[in-house]
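Notes from the 1:1 (GR / supervisor)

We went over the backlog. Supervisor wanted to see one worked example end to end before approving the batch request, so GR pasted a single chain during the call. The sequence is below; no edits were made to it. Supervisor asked that the structure be written out right there so they could see what the output format looks like.
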Amino acid sequence: MKKNVLVLAWFCCLTLMAQAGVAKYCMSYSDFVKGNWKSVDELTHGSTCQECQMKSYNHHFYFRTGNKEADKKLKKEAFAIMYGDQLFVNCRNLRNDGVCLDVTGYTQAVRFDKDKVCVMAYKIDDVSLLLGLGLDIASIFVKNDAASIGLDLAATGCYIGNDFLSKTVCYLVDSDANMKGKIPVTRMNDQYMENLLNNDAPMLEKYKAIDNKRDRQSAANVIPILMEKGLVTSFAMK
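Structure output shown during the call:
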């Protein structure tokens, strides 16, 4: 319970820090590592200033500017978008053991161990279940203006913190795309966490304290462990 409250407060804090005019994107993992971010307003030559919108459906995120070429670039070519102080990674080319993740757009992510990225996405069975049930979640459009972004995103963030993390798992991005343009990601499962915490018996025991495998490997359990280890800081981009 304490762990869920910690994560919930963390995501609420992230969402409340979003500010107008700070939607940025980078084209590759290398650009992310080097901090080579470009303003979305530059991409649209300022023609859509203050109108970058984020749409969320079943925690799949999409970004729209109103500029056809800009939207195409963000959808098919960009690696990540920083919206306020929140980080979103494009799942279009992410592959785990050659299999694409079940996210059709962007998903929420955090900086991991300074120069890596931890993305959170539904497992295949979870996505199939949600789609099969026809989960009725209203799409959320957030205009990039100072008056509304904080409160609107705060509500979204609280939902993400409580529900999204418990139903998703973490994947690690630590390299650029291969020759085929696909970016390999590593599932942060039991084996990965055991290797990561090999020299920290108390933390490993804490991770393993959850008997149910699904709950143990969920982002709701993994993220707090990474935070305690100092591998994920309290803020996505700092």
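Supervisor's comment: The mean pLDDT is 76.
Batch request approved.
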